[in-house]
Amino acid sequence: RKPIVALVGRPNVGKSTLFNRLAGEPLAIVDDTPGTTRDRLMAEAEWNGRYFFIVDTGGIDPSTGGKEALSVGSADYIQQIRQQAELAIREADVVLFLTDAITGVTPADQEVAQILRRNQKIIEGKPHPPVLLVVNKADNQTFRSGAAEFYELGIGEPYPISALHGTGTGDLLDDLVAAF
Ligand code: GDP
Ligand code: MG
């Protein structure tokens, strides 16, 4: 089967923007599952002849379905981020963990990083599924250099990209399809 790539990260880091950039035809709305992250959006994508499914785990985005906005740092907000990350680790073959170069590392990013690391399994000596750390909104050289700050999340090498302008996504996708 085609590999599944999940986009995770707190609201407003650019998951939907990257999804729209990578997605071909939208395939399906993954409907509400009670008690879990809601309204996941899936599409087929392709890079260098490698096909995969990309999933925007957008349940915590107030913009994607008219759900009430959750205030940053509230118990519900943290809970939704937790569920989104746990679900992605269970279902995905590779996880793209998005962060934001403009804001820098936030407590919610630390929370997501911790959940991802804790829920990875070790298969043949390697953490599974692999997580690639994306530093989005790195629209210029200053932000691209500053992305090194994100090493502190303990997820490995940060990939600075601009989902808006499309820069950096080639290197990211090369390593993404190599991780399948
Ligand atoms: P999501 O909540 O993670 O799905 O984030 P969105 O994709 O909805 O993006 C949130 C905001 O960030 C929007 O205003 C986007 O236009 C903006 N954004 C997304 N990617 C970039 C980027 O690469 N650079 C900049 N400057 N803004 C971006
Ligand atoms: Mg979104």
UniProtKB/TrEMBL annotation:
Purpose: GTPase that plays an essential role in the late steps of ribosome biogenesis.
Parent-record interval covered: 2 to 181 of 453
State the oligomer form and interacting partners.
Associates with the 50S ribosomal subunit.
Q: Cite the EngA-type G domain residue spans from the record.
A: 3-180
Residues that coordinate or bind GTP 1: 9-16, 56-60, 136-139
The family this protein is said to belong to? Belongs to the TRAFAC class TrmE-Era-EngA-EngB-Septin-like GTPase superfamily. EngA (Der) GTPase family.
* Protein name as it appears in the record: GTPase Der
Protein's organism:
Bellilinea caldifistulae
